[in-house]
Amino acid sequence: MPLHIDLHCHSWFSADGVSTPEDLIASAKKKGLHGFAITDHNTCDAVIYLLEKGLMREDGQPVDGFLVVPGVEVTTAEGHLLCLGTILHNLKGAPAKEVCDIVHARGGLAIPPHPYDLFRAGIRQSVLETLPIDALEVFNAATTFKKYNRQAFEYAQMRGLPMTAGSDAHHEAAIGTAYTILNTDDFSVKGVLAQIVKSNDLNQKYLTPRDSLRKTWNNWMRLRLRKRPKKIVR
Known about the structure:
Shape: globular
CATH class: Alpha Beta
Distance between the termini: 63 Å
Largest sheet: 7 strands, mixed
């Protein structure tokens, strides 16, 4: 059974995300996805939220025919790292090797997103070669320049790594722009994780100019809010 799973998505629990987890699910269902991985920046709050709302199950089974894979995009000391299949907290700034080891100890997968992207904290090849990663995101729908996806693909081929694709959606309209096609009959978090490390097909489509502009605007607003001085209470 081919499962269409977007392995890189952000909700409003990310500082630069704008959509609720419920809106992401609704949009993904309309687009025919079977599920997605929720990979907010440095937080698993969306995972906890979805579990509390009954939209995810602790046993990793789908809810109403839709599967949300727990995950997080950790900003490691060397760049961004998707960690799928487990809940992690407070790892921002940790060495990428250390994060990989923690993910593996908890039964999850470590997948660097948008490597080579000089503008989006992609982990560089010199570091990739030292990491025990499980797969590589070779198609990111929001990459700054298309050549970065091509370079990631070539490196994955050279190293013999499984390949993934994701939308890197930060709002519901962008989810499912790109996704990974996983051929497995085990429709569960466990089944998805087991299939990711095998050979899979990829749906490769870039964000529209409108979606790209919206993502850029969200990032700009995030930086602006961070730089805003706090009011002094006297």
